Amino acid sequence: MIAFDELTYLHGKPLSQGLLKANPEDFVVVEDLGFAPDGEGEHVLVRILKNGCNTRFVADALAKFLKIHAREVSFAGQKDKHAVTEQWLCARVPGKEMPDLSKFQLEGCQVLEYARHKRKLRLGALKGNQFTLVLREISDRDDVETRLQAIAEHGVPNYFGAQRFGIGGSNLLGRCAGPRAARRCAIVINAVFGCRRPAAHCLINRLVLD
């Protein structure tokens, strides 16, 4: 297996140090679905701005406000709790009457807009995310600026961390449809995650290195 500290640095090992996420405002994420709400349908797309609360917590609170089951509220992806993030939630609310989400109140969360939509928003159904990061207390600013220029020109290796697969590979298991597929997936997860620490990301990172 390959530990993160053993992975290759495309631009050489860093010479500078800095502080990331000193406060939530230093880590801003804006979700881009790549499409606009239809304006009709049994679902309601809700664009929210949150700070200090995770996506599932907000989704559950929204479900409670709408008096629907938590499973009726979906999202394209979870966003960091300790950050300022903007994303879309989707609630299944059939009927002609539009709920008044301007009355939805939750500490650390604000509803920016909402509209009807024909389809459920599913996990991964987004164009991408835009990140704005602030590094503080940088020890060598020249080194950082040089590396940023190199990254802009050549990019960085797309290594995968254990969080991509969930706790014990639960995200992989969730992708398996049907009992047979689930059993096969469970066997793979047991083989990969049966050791003391997750290893699936190491296999992918080996391919990236090669």
Q: What general form does the structure show?
A: elongated
* CATH topology tier name of the largest domain: Pseudouridine synthase
Total number of helices: 5
Quick check: average pLDDT? 83
CATH class of the largest domain, named Alpha Beta
Number of strands: 8
Supply the helix-strand structural class. Answer: alpha+beta
Q: What is the CA–CA distance across the termini?
A: 14 Å
Q: Mind telling me the CATH superfamily name of the largest domain?
A: TruD, catalytic domain
The biggest beta sheet is recorded as: 6 strands, mixed
Quaternary assembly? single chain
Strand portion, in percent?
A: 15-25%
What's this, in brief?
The protein is α+β, with helices and mostly antiparallel strands.
What attributes does this structure have?
2 domains, alpha+beta, elongated, Pseudouridine synthase, two-stranded antiparallel sheet, tRNA pseudouridine 13 synthase, 210 residues, 6-stranded mixed sheet, tRNA processing
